[in-house]
Amino acid sequence: MISLRGVYIIWLRDIKRFLRDRARIIAAMAQPALYLFVLGTGLGAAIGRSGDYIKFIYPGIIGMTLLFTSIFSAISIVWDREFGFLKEILVAPISRSTVALGKAFGGSTIAMIQGTMLLIFAPFVGVSLSFLMVLKLFAVMFLIAFSLTSMGIVVAARLKTMEGFQMIMNFLMMPLFLLSGAMFPLKGLPEWMNFLVKMDPLTYGIDALRYIVIGIHSYSLPYSLVMVLSFGAVMISFAIYAFNRQN
Questions:
Q1: Contacts of 26 (CB under 8 A, 6+ apart)
Q2: pLDDT tens, 120-162?
Q3: How many separate domains does the chain show?
Q4: Which residues neighbour 11 within 8 Å (Cβ) at sequence distance 6 or greater?
Q5: What is the residue-wise DSSP string for the chain?
Q6: What is the pTM (predicted TM-score) of this model?
Q7: 43-87 pLDDT, tens per residue?
Q8: How far apart are CA 40 and CA 53, in angstroms?
């Protein structure tokens, strides 16, 4: 019960910080809208299928939002270290695993909130979502967000400065996004690129989202979910190990 309460308190602290930051909430809607309607319309017009292309990238934009939000949620660890709050948490009468899990659940919940906000764009891109589809999307979004937040925690647990975290995360996020198939189909790619796409865990998450939203997929839904779940299990294990090694 102590561990569960510790997870809840850490989770609640991150949620409150997010809800009090109105600028962050507004930006969470503005950036995906630019990618979806401005970039999507431009690229769609270039290939002569604007409406179909916007509908195609819509699940990819949701995945992009989950990626960026999940990764940068872990920056609070570096922030807490700089201001001494992390040290107070680590000496509290709770296990280090509790801290890692609380941070992972907090970051993934924030990412899910932002991903859910994008569902209001569905009617504008020609997508009709049923109640069952939304429930499936929630489950997939949570798996993606939890896995990516755990990866961010692994990196943040070993860094001392905000600048170092941002540099490494920018280096990781863009390849993860660009190779995920968020903006292009996965068929007919060169062999070298096809290999990199298959190594990207976000590929399977976006493929699962696209399967649920518009019925297009490159992998079966169970296979994609297993891949995302396996990646998440590995990352949260590394995150717990990283926190156990903290001084």
A1: none
A2: 999 998 899 999 999 999 999 999 999 999 998 888 877 777 7
A3: 1
A4: 102, 105, 106, 109
A5: -HHHHHHHHHHHHHHHHHHT-HHHHHHHHHHHHIIIIIIHHHHHHHHT-HHHHHHHHHHHHHHHHHHHHHHHHTHHHHHHHHTTHHHHHHTSSS-HHHHHHHHHHHHHHHHHHHHHHGGGGGGGGT----HHHHHHHHHHHHHHHHHHHHHHHHHHTT---HHHHHHHHHHHHHHHHHTTTSSS-STT--HHHHHHHHH-HHHHHHHHHHHHHHS--SS-HHHHHHHHHHHHHHHHHHHHHHHHT--
A6: 0.90
A7: 888 877 767 889 999 999 999 999 988 888 877 777 777 666 667
A8: 7
Q: At what angle do helices 131-156 and 162-178 cross, to 10 degrees?
A: 140
Encode 108-138 in three state secondary structure. HHHHHHHHHHHHHHHHHHCCCCCHHHHHHHH
CB neighbour list of residue 43: distance below 8 Å, 6 or more residues apart: 53, 183
Domain enclosing residue 163, as ranges = 2-244
Which candidate, 161, 6, 151, 11, places its Cα nearest to that of 92? 6
Can you read off the two tokens belonging to residue 78?
């570096």
In this structure, which amino acid lies at residue 97?
S
Q: How many CB atoms lie within 10 A of CB 76?
A: 23
Q: Tokens 């755990």 correspond to what residue?
A: 150
Contact 186, 160 (CB under 8 A): no
Q: For residues 44 and 52, is the Cβ–Cβ distance under 8 A?
A: yes
200-224 as b/e, with b when 16 or more CB fall inside 10 Å?
A: bbbbbbbbbbbbbbbeebbbeeeeb
